[in-house]
Amino acid sequence: MKIIHAADLHLDSPMKTHLDGEKAEKRKNELTLNFSRLCDTAADLKVKAVLIAGDLFDTKSVSKKVANIVLAQINKYKDIDFYYLRGNHDRDSFLSFIKSTGDIPSNFHMFEDEWSSYCLNPESDGRKIMLYGAEFNNNASKIITLFNADFNDINIVTLHGQENEYTGKDKTDIVPISALRGRGIDYLALGHVHEHKIKTLDSRGIYCYPGCLEGRGFDECGDHGFVLLDIDEENGDIIPQFIDFAYRKLHTLDIDISNLENSGEIIEKIGKDIMACRYSPRDMVKIRLVGEVDENAEINEMLIADAFKDEYFFVKVKNESSVRVNYMKYALDESLKGWFIRLVQNSDEIDEETKGQIVRMGLNALSGEEIVQ
Asked: Are 17 and 28 in contact (CB under 8 A)?
């Protein structure tokens, strides 16, 4: 039997942290259509069940457009069972929407704030594949202690929260790994962490975060997707495989601009370095300027970003270089610039790196340039 373990789709996310206008709306729609792509892929892979381990939606209230698309896909693929565990972003709005449209689809299953269980292969002659799940609602400690499974079954458990060796005091987002060891769990399907992670639970089982289907910000760079589980009903083996699924990827590229003097030279260096990365034109790229530059170096982040805006879906440039200031050059300078630099140099309350940044902003202000923080 094949099962998809996905989590953290965050449908209906506004996508306005980096994008605005038409691109933000386009990206928002792409995230929604990810659910359709996921269902199409599940059918192509002949998957029996899709398990969503929390945060299918991004906000408490789901738009009718998004809810309609999700429901349409569930109804379209009646041979696939969908198991939906709500996370810390999800609420009852989607379930309320389904009820308002008529009967809940027979292939759509949910969990509550106490343990629920489903047999995934009731007609099989092999070992039973059992799926357990519970939603945290200020009850994490109690929920874990009440878990009970038959060691003769193939047991999959789904929870949504941050892994930790030990539980907190009824913290809703903590999954206490130590308390789940030796409980007959073969695969612990988690959600909440947005990068793929798989580790040993105990001598019998493993636990896994599939990560989010698609990165939304530059703290979610790299590959994203879901985990495909191939389960042998006879011997109980579960083989997990990460499937890279993201339509667009996000990348952060560090460019050392040490000793470069102006934006033109920086653009030329970025052009050479970024070509070697072979990013897709669909991708989003954050370029971090690092290294050490002279205090008079001309660095225009918007100009540099504009040079590459047609190469990728979105480009952002952030100047994080440090400033090398030759204070001796201004020791006898009677200009406003010299006075300002000596004032910064003589401060005992500012570290050297911060002094450099202050000098950079001050010189930009004195020359009439916009200050970007």
From this structure: no
Predicted confidence at residue 212, as pLDDT, reads 96
Answer for the pair 183, 200: CB distance below 8 angstroms, yes or no. Answer: no
Plot region of 203 (φ>0 → left; ψ -120 to 50 → alpha; else → beta) = alpha
Q: Parse the chain into domains and list their residue ranges.
A: 2-244, 249-324, 326-373
In this prediction, residue 327 carries a pLDDT of: 62
φ/ψ (deg, to 5) at 172: -70, -20
Which tokens is 290 given? 């690092």
Task: Please check whether residue 40 is in contact with residue 176, taking contact to mean a CB–CB distance below 8 angstroms.
Answer: no
CA distance 222 to 215: 8
Angle at 232 between CA 211 and CA 152, to 5 degrees: 100
The Cα 331–Cα 22 span in angstroms is: 52
Distance CA 279, CA 300 (A): 23
Pair 164, 174: CB distance under 8 Å: yes
- Among the residues of the chain, which ranges form H helices? 21-44, 64-76, 93-101, 140-145, 177-180, 263-275, 301-306, 336-345, 352-366
Q: Quote the pLDDT of residue 165.
A: 85
Pairing of strands 206-209, 187-191: parallel
The span from the CA of 2 to the CA of 87, in Å, is: 23
Q: What is the DSSP string of 145-184?
A: HT----TTSEEEEEEESEEESS--SS-TTEEEHHHHTTS-
Q: How far is CA 297 from CA 281, 330, 340, in A?
A: 30, 16, 17
C-alpha 194/C-alpha 224 separation (Å) is 8
Paired with 119 in beta bridges are 130
Which residues lie across from 256 on neighbouring strands? 290
CATH of domain 2-244: 3.60.21.10
Mean pLDDT, contiguous 10-residue spans, the chain (373 residues): 96 87 92 94 97 91 90 96 91 85 92 94 90 87 88 96 75 83 97 96 97 94 97 93 96 96 96 95 97 89 96 96 73 75 81 76 65 49
CB within 8 Å of 69: residues ≥ 6 apart: 32, 33, 35, 36
Q: What angle do CA 312, 222, 215 make, to 5 degrees?
A: 75
